[in-house]
Amino acid sequence: MRLFWKIATPVFCVAIIGGAAVARHLYKAKAKLAEAARVCRVKAEQGDAKSEYDLAHMYYHKLGVPLDYAEAFRWYRKAAEQGDAKAEFEVGSMYFRGKGVSQDYAEALRWYRKAADQGYAYAQSGLGFMYETGKGVPQDYTEALLWYRKAADQGDAFSQNALGVMYYKGQGVAQVYAESARWYRKAADQGYALAESGIGFMLWYGYGVPQDRAEANRWFRMAADQGDEYAIRTLSKSLTTYVKFSLTIQLIGGLILTFSFLSLNIYESGKSLRNFRQRVIVGTGVLILFTTGLSWYGYTHYKIRCIYCGLNTFTVCKWLLGLVIIGLLFYIVLSKEPAQEGEIATEEIVAESGGDKKL
Length: 359
Description:
mainly alpha; Serine Threonine Protein Phosphatase 5, Tetratricopeptide repeat; 17 helices; 0% strand; 359 residues
């Protein structure tokens, strides 16, 4: 008990000190944000457009002030009425989503257009989306393509991916796979998950680019790691016949080794796992069964699966376990089964009698 308290006391003290330090840091950060919001409010109330925008941002994201979409909308609107393009876009977005104000696609379109006319890429992308989906305006792929291209030329990943989709489907433009792949790649290079999945799809089937399934899977894995459902489904494929056969052999081998201690001489002696070699055999069987389960899970779940190329947690663990199993199997084959108690006694008697086995 004394040893427990000797260990627990310093650990408890360190935890208290660490917790106090973290709490102090959080308190100071919160106080700093609150002060920034106070200063921002003073300037915003004086009509400074940037401060109005910043204060709205704070209300929208709960930074130093309580979360309040209505208040965020009010300050965004004040900044937008002074011609701030970012604020105009945010007002449009809040009308589009119905946050802090009643949903109104027509108003969203009006504010998006104000910001888009100033060259703000996000607003141009928003206009493109509204024309593509026909929200607040008649569906018009040609107009959508126009606004998406304006935003895409400024590097907006959402618009670049949208252009990839429209060129692939031939919406508002002639179907051109090469152009589709080019726009997908631009957005994918920025880490946009849908585009990573898109360029993976194009590479897998060779649409607009030379077919390269190893490269396709590299893009699929990047998209899947961001939660893209199509990439997840693509990587989580069912087992092939070869893999099923391999896993079945592993399963049988593991079961044989695991239950090898259930032999007659074990029952007769009333003991199981009576020596180190027997324990190694059973342990190896259990390890093989574990590796088989890991392999099955890995082949059917993208998170730990490697297809064609690359290394990840699944393959590294599998290789390491494989090496351990091979080493244990070598030990089992090369090691000698220890003689049993009765055999040892017989050998001693024979030795004492001068080697005459007819005792």
